[in-house]
Design goal:
By secondary structure, the chain is mainly alpha-helical. The chain folds into three domains: about 210 residues, MFS general substrate transporter like domains (Growth Hormone, Chain: A, Up-down Bundle); about 55 residues; about 250 residues, Growth Hormone, Chain: A. Helices cover about 75% and strands about 0% of the residues. The radius of gyration is 24 Å and the shape is globular. The C terminus is likely disordered.
Length: about 525
């Protein structure tokens, strides 16, 4: 694309202003929202999808894992794809292909067809969010780049929370294909806006030979890792030969990929970014914090539905308050990001998270909706304080040509961390449930006064024999699951508190190129 757009002394386009900047922000935001939403919107609809396509619910989960697997593989390739074809063209093409394969997912008449559609949908969506983040930073005025990150982070925060709520409502009131059809107008609108607003502002292209070995190792390694994480709990982890094989393949492939990418002249994944102290500290901190954040977001609604009897919609509503204050505060914090101490802000966020998760860990199955939702509301204060400063630290000193690579690699690490968290936290919850169930069952014995008293209460209500045994086991299981949730939440709360000193290993200045510093 030949351009007459004005450039600065470094050859970069001058920032956008006015309506063009507003339209750019809208396009990137709705595209990012759409991509992240598709990771969670299907979750609560698996029973409906599985029933419609005549497969078991466990087979239906491949509609989730196939998308996650493909998107995770492509994310670290974002920088290479953007350099090869231009970031504007990459974004527009990605959005339009996402629309096409979303429509094909909605038209699926069998599970293999849906899985193929979701796999391809994930492949084409991979670059969209990271390239969109790079386009925002590249075209925003330097002093407003914190605001740009704030708006983008707000979308990243809100989409996973509202995904299950929207998914449940659409499935109950329309039908599951509309989970995918809603992407069509949104994707076309985003592609159209970016195509018009940035048509003369294409990034510099750099044709480099494809690193076939690195690409192959990445696909095999990440694919095997994602398969292991998606199926580990169902297959009892390393009791399964499939999981053992997947783990070995993942370790070997990724183990070979790292030195290969560090020594190849044209790597598909630029691991040299980790030589930068702030990128390493910021990305590592985000990975651990996102692990703990996602752990709560996965286990909490599962506990509400399996133990407290909440529907998927009400579980989603109990989760939603975390987004309320985050939605309000993210643009404000983003606009003032250059004025605040980033390490102190992240430390405050981790303290807020730790306190609120500890608070929830102390609740039990008798807690009311308001008691469960209130800590989530206050936790929302910490969300933008954690996400925005750390993203600024990650991007500190990253040049315009490396924005897409840095964003893609950082988002990839965050995505994998979320997948690991889902698998590990559910495993810990199940394991601790079994432990507490065994401990509580030990108290049911003939010489226990508490058990004898409880039996008398059951008898007075006409509950005896096998019915009494089944009722007692149900109560024990409910209490064991609640105690297990507390164990997991206490662990995650400690993880947030441990991160506080680690974030101070980052070193200012943290401003983007040409900004000045934020401490």
């Amino acid at each position: 694309m030949t351009s007459s757009e004005p450039r600065d002394e470094f050859g970069e386009y001058l920032p956008l202003h006015g309506m063009k900047l507003v339209l750019l922000t809208i396009a990137v935001s709705i595209a990012s929202f759409m991509e992240i939403l598709d990771m969670t919107i299907v979750n609560v609809s698996i029973p409906s999808i599985a029933g419609s396509l005549a497969v078991s619910p466990s087979e239906g989960t491949w509609a989730i894992s196939s998308y996650m697997l493909a998107a995770a593989v492509v994310q670290p390739l974002t920088g290479w794809i953007g350099r090869q074809y231009g970031e504007v063209r990459t974004f527009v093409t990605s959005a339009l292909l996402f629309v096409l394969f979303s429509a094909l997912c909605g038209l699926a008449t069998s599970m293999p067809m849906l899985i193929a559609g979701r796999l391809t949908q994930g492949l084409v969506s991979g670059p969209m969010m990271s390239v969109g983040q790079a386009l925002l930073l590249r075209n925003y005025p330097v002093k407003l780049r914190g605001l740009a990150l704030g708006l983008w982070a707000m979308v990243v925060i809100i989409a996973p929370i509202f995904g299950p709520i929207m998914g449940g409502w659409i499935t109950d009131n329309l039908s599951w294909p509309w989970l995918f059809y809603i992407n069509v107008p949104v994707g076309i609108l985003a592609a159209l806006i970016i195509g018009v607003v940035l048509r003369r502002r294409e990034s510099k292209k750099m044709k480099t030979p494809i690193d076939a070995v690195g690409l192959g190792l990445l696909v095999i390694g990440v694919g095997s890792l994602q398969f292991m994480l998606d199926n580990g709990n169902e297959k009892d982890w390393f009791s399964s030969v499939e999981i053992i094989v997947a783990a070995v393949v993942a370790v070997v492939a990724i183990g070979f990929m790292i030195p290969w990418e560090l020594t190849d002249r044209h790597p598909v994944v630029d691991l040299h970014l980790f030589r930068r102290r702030n990128f390493l500290v910021g990305t590592t901190t985000i990975a651990v914090a996102y692990f703990a954040f996602m752990g709560v977001n996965v286990v909490f609604p599962l506990w509400l539905q399996t133990t407290l009897g909440y529907t998927s919609t009400w579980a989603g509503l109990a989760m939603a308050p975390v987004g309320m204050l985050a939605l309000v505060l993210a643009p404000i914090i983003g606009r003032n990001l250059h004025r605040i101490n980033l390490r102190a802000a992240a430390s405050l966020a981790f303290l807020i998270f730790g306190i609120n998760i500890w608070w929830v860990a102390g609740l039990n199955e008798t807690a009311s909706f308001s008691q469960l939702a209130l800590p989530r509301l206050f936790q929302g204060i910490g969300v933008p304080l954690f996400f925005l400063p750390l993203n600024q630290i990650v991007m500190a000193g990253v040049g315009p040509a490396e924005l897409a690579s840095a964003a893609g690699l950082s988002n990839f690490i965050r995505t994998i961390s979320g997948s690991i968290s889902t698998a590990v936290c559910v495993y810990l919850w199940n394991t601790r449930t079994d432990y507490h169930h065994a401990v509580l069952t030990e108290h049911i014995r003939p010489d226990s006064n508490a058990w004898l008293s409880f039996q008398q209460q059951l008898d007075s209500h006409g509950i005896s024999g096998t019915t009494a045994a089944a009722y007692t086991d149900q109560l024990i299981t409910q209490q064991a699951m609640t105690l297990a949730v507390s164990d997991v939440f206490y662990l995650l709360a400690v993880a947030f508190l441990v991160l506080i000193p680690f974030v101070w290993y980052a070193r200012p200045p943290f401003g983007a190129p040409g900004t000045g510093s934020a401490h």
